Amino acid sequence: MMEPESTDNPEYPAIDIGGQLRKAREAASLSVDDIASDLRIHVNYIEALEKNNFEILNGPTYVKGYIRNYARLLEIDADPLVEAYQSSVGEERIPVWSGSQQPLHKGSSHRKGMLTGSVIVALALLVLFGIWLLKSGYLDRYQVDTAQAESASEAAPPESSALPETSAADDATQGITPKSEGMTIKEQVQALNPQAAMSAETPKEEAQSASEEPTESTKVESGTENAIILGEDDFIVAPGGEGSDEIIITLTDECWVEIKDATSYQLIHGLLKAGDIKVILGTAPFQVFLGNAKAVQMDFNGVDYDIAAKTRRNGTARFALVNQ
Amino acid sequence: MLKSLLGLFSNDMSIDLGTANTLIYMSGKGIVLNEPSVVAIRLDQRGGSKSIEAVGVEAKKMLGRTPENITAIRPMKDGVIADFTHTEKMLQHFIKKAHGGLFFSPRVVVCVPCGATQVERRAIRESAQGAGARKVFLVEEPMAAALGAGIPIDEATGSMVLDIGGGTSEVAIMSLNGIVFSDSVRVGGDRFDEAIINYIRRNYGILIGEATAEKIKHEIGSAYPGKELREIEVRGRNLSEGVPRSFTINSNEVLEALQESLYGIVSAVKTALERTPPELSSDVADRGLVLTGGGALLRDIDRLLMEETGIPVVIADDPLTCVARGGGRVLELMEEKGTDFLSTE
């Protein structure tokens, strides 16, 4: 492959392309018009070629073509002229396909590529596996086991060092699933709703520290013998999450329950089974209707509510819960 | 994010799936593969099952020289797929060869003739997908040819390109990154070879093979009467005697043989000029027609077109690889300008 002679000075071609063409034309005693009519190119273009004024022509593809056609007509070698032009416009020479089969991938570079690829893929797989572990809740279960040995302080245990980000995210999105080792239902609710917590007796700090380590379901250990699991379904929150009043109902037997909040929004409406615990958050005053009042034990804003006083003879109770 | 990650492992490529040759261009590497579109199939006599014997250069050597149980075929005909299964196998082989054993399959731009029907386009797309492409984009051949030749088609000026391939010739007039008019005629290098075979059989009573005809075309073929007369000595089978005979043929005879096929191309160019809006056709008359494709290497074909149409004709740099390079350019431009260049299915 011939190197253009003018690589040092890309501004102006080392070979006077136009001058050579003009000299060759004059040697063949041809006029510009003869050339123009032979090549079907406008006279202006021929003159521009001879003056090395390539800017007014239509771009490198055409200029190279015109130079080749012109040189062929005058029977001079076009390649040096075209190369000079290419170097003057800073165009890279297209490596002409030689027809021979080049080795496409040199062994070493190919293997190097494979190696880099393998390493990156292995890393990506590791990261994916980590994410899967976090998502699948395996680590959460592990943490429940270890959490007993640790205080619910902000210091993250070394085993779960990869956890905080996701946990925080879960906390933000779910919001109502605080982990509460050894907490009462009331404390759980306070942890769940900081506004309610402020009005209740439990200190705020405890609620906050408890909310930092959430789990999928809330596990309550009252004493050591029996544990009550509160699922997400057991929390009923008024639309928009508004309201700072809270009702906890615990059922000892089946009972029809209907509770409406201040805006007459039906918070709960249906038959509850024995053993059900419902935590209801909304704005007082609440309209409560119980079908089997003696089966219900009710807490209103942390205070035991005496249902028996409101129970009618047929066992139903209909009353309003008003904030004191 | 995943896309860019996959991009680390695979190299995007542009494929000029031609009737005669398949070229693969990879961004950053240039043309990495240029092989004949030929597949040799071995037919297992016991089971009747077929297996690929050779692909590309190896297979081309077998064309017309195979025993009974091997067939060397060209799965592409007239720029489109004639044999789907073997095109897919061939592409698979080429992509693997060009791409190496990288983990992820490449995104591929495949050039299709502008005359290809929807069915033919879909066949090409599916064939490339079957051959291991992650995503397939189709681009019209003249568009790729123009980009590969370096024509500034983004200007509001008409540019004309003629791509003479193995099976088809595509002519198109473009402006503002779009095709204003395009036409495809099923005349190309293969038709030239056929014409030479027929001419020799008629005038010499001698039968020659495709490979010999191609050799004649390359060595002494020309499209316009030149100053010098070139000759070549070739061998063929004498039809009446049935024995091999050698004979000499000259360039004027070849020119005569090629007349009809060349006329097909010339008339396609003339029709395109006729049917172009006058503003654009005056631009074309001013700047000229750009020739690309293997057919542009036929001696004096630019001269013929210049005389017949009266407009300047220039031959692009390395015309054989223009389409493949243009496809690669499409891949680059796709990132900047979106999918304007892609053909619709």
Question: What would you say about this model in short?
Answer:
The complex is a heterodimer of chains A (324) and B (345). Chain A contains 11 helices and 11 strands.
List the helices and strands and how they pair.
The complex is a heterodimer of chains A (324) and B (345).
Chain A: H1 17-27, H2 32-39, H3 43-50, H4 60-73, H5 79-88, H6 107-136, H7 138-147, H8 164-174, H9 185-192, H10 194-199, H11 204-211, E1 218-222, E2 226-230, E3 235-237, E4 245-251, E5 255-260, E6 266-272, E7 277-282, E8 286-290, E9 296-300, E10 303-305, E11 317-321
Parallel strand pairs in A: 3-7
Antiparallel strand pairs in A: 1-2, 4-7, 4-9, 5-6, 5-8, 8-11, 9-10
Chain B: H1 2-9, E1 13-17, E2 21-26, E3 30-36, E4 39-43, E5 50-55, H2 57-62, E6 70-73, E7 76-77, E8 80-81, H3 84-99, E9 107-112, H4 118-130, E10 135-140, H5 141-149, E11 159-164, E12 169-175, E13 178-185, H6 189-204, E14 206-207, H7 210-220, E15 231-238, E16 244-250, H8 251-274, H9 278-287, E17 289-292, H10 301-309, E18 313-315, H11 322-337
Parallel strand pairs in B: 1-9, 9-10, 11-17, 17-18
Antiparallel strand pairs in B: 1-2, 2-3, 4-5, 4-6, 7-8, 11-12, 12-13, 14-15, 15-16
Helix pairs in contact in B: 3-4, 5-11, 6-7, 6-8
Instruction: Name the shape of chain A in a single word.
Output: rod-shaped
- Return the average pLDDT of chain B rounded to an integer: 89
Order of helices and strands of chain B: HEEEEEHEEEHEHEHEEEHEHEEHHEHEH
Radius of gyration of chain A, taken over Cα atoms and rounded to an integer in Å: 43 Å
Mean pLDDT of chain A: 70
Q: Report the oligomer.
A: heterodimer
In angstroms, what separates the terminal alpha carbons of chain B?
28 Å
Please estimate the helix content of chain A: 25-40%
Strand percentage of chain A lies at 15-25%
Q: In terms of structural class, how would the helical and strand content of chain A be classed?
A: alpha+beta
Secondary structure class of chain B reads alpha+beta
How much strand content do the residues of chain B show? 25-35%
What is the number of strand segments of chain A?
11
Give me the Rg of chain B, rounded. Answer: 21 Å
